[in-house]
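Batch manifest, entry 17 of 40.
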Amino acid sequence: MSSVGLLYVGAVLFINGLMLIGVVPGKSAAILNFFVGIMQVVFPTIILIQANNDLPTIFGAAGLYLFGFTYLYVGILQATGISGEGLGWFSLFVAACAVVIGILQFTLVADPVFGAIWLTWAVLWFLFFLLLGLGKDSLAYTTGWFTIFVAHITGTIPAFFLLVGRYETNTGLALLVTVAAVAALAAAFFLGRRGIPHAKPSTQDGVAVTA
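Output type: structure tokens
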């Protein structure tokens, strides 16, 4: 994933996490989801057109569609009021793909840091599945807080390292990302149990909407 694309993944995840914990209204969050969703569909399409059957390039672009379609889906749901079950089950598909891509990052690409990042995204998208696909509304705050944390752990921070040419990948750094992700998940469950008394998650037809 390009540094610019990764930066805006961090941005939209941050906004969607705030939407889930009731800080940002759904229709307001929909705007950024449309912007980033379109970017994450147009850019990989251009890459694929110019790939000339180069498999590493195609592999790198393919995962971007998972994000692009998710954000466009969120934008449409928030703008129209359609319930989120379809997005929830799509999130299960994304989570499964993220596991595969994460393993390939370790084995095929030799990039353990992005392997850890992809596996973290798999956990996040699985939470979206539980929340939206299975209607586990009690996970709304937990998912929202984890989304906020993951936005920076897997998006903003590595994007800036890439942008300034300081990105490195090794087993030690991958372990650091993993520890940060586990700590973020634990913190999200703690904060999710407490909730926020003055706010409600963004919901439509009784189903919280995020991604």
